[in-house]
Amino acid sequence: ILSDRKNEYLKYEGNEIITWCAGCGNYSIQKALERALILEGFKTNDVLFCYDIGCNGNGSDKIASDGGYTFHGLHGRVISAAAGAAIANPKMKVIAEGGDGGTMSEGINHLVHGVRSDYPMMFILHNNENFGLTTGQASACTRKDNSMNGSPDGVISDPINCCDFVLGLDPSFVARSFSGDVKHMTDIFRAGLKHNGFAFIEVLQTCPTYNRATPKEWYMERVKHLKQVPNTIESARKVASDMEDEINLGIFYQDKKSVNYLERLVNRKNVKTTPVEEVGRFDIGPLLKQFE
Ligand code: SF4
Description:
Blueprint: H1 6-10, H2 26-39, E1 47-51, H3 59-62, E2 69-72, H4 78-88, E3 93-99, H5 100-106, H6 108-117, E4 121-127, H7 162-167, E5 173-178, H8 182-194, E6 198-204, H9 216-220, E7 223-225, H10 233-240, E8 247-254, H11 261-264, H12 275-279, H13 285-289
Parallel strand pairs: 1-2, 1-3, 3-4, 4-6, 5-6, 7-8
Antiparallel strand pairs: 5-8
Helix pairs in contact: 2-8, 5-6
The chain binds iron/sulfur cluster.
């Protein structure tokens, strides 16, 4: 599909040594995202990739130095940093990525406000159902009774269903995909890139090293592609709810008429320039000297 655009594809490839485990779902997520960007016509300098701390965040090292701008922030805080960038420079496509560990625990407040504010950005939740980078501790998405490092007797709380949680926040875009299906991820990412507000996309990501309870084969027996997008939040919650037997993938909800945060700001109405352009180049040297 991308054979005639091979050179564009290679632009994203950095020379850093890859640290992800063999068979990790992060590889296919990154490839699907690159494909979606190329197919949607984005040039590398049109895009800012913001990464949370976690295995997914090491994707920051995989982007070539001229393959897009990257920001690697604090654990659980990627949405707030990305939202700031999206508001400051709306000419840039801002994509944030975080894991279920950072996003659904210490960063869950940022997710709530990202959704309710409807910031103009796309957020990809890598849900591998554990804290992989710190060697397999239970996250808020680990299934009940699973034995994990740090909870050898099994997890005793119910997991959060991420899409159902976000659907309860009056979102403008919610979707789910699977790291074992590059074409489906590419299609969903393309839809998220075109969305006007906060596009929340959960990817069920395989983690063969620490999540042995739901390997790729487990998902492949259960995932189903939704045939059509539900037209109400209530019907979306119904199709998103099952995470055990029949796991639906697709766009669960989209408000195509959503008015994003920036468009609702009264003091930015009829302003043609961006905050970044207005600030221009400012020498912060004298300011930094105060802290020497
Ligand atoms: Fe991927 Fe899991 Fe390895 Fe992290 S620990 S790189 S998520 S397979």
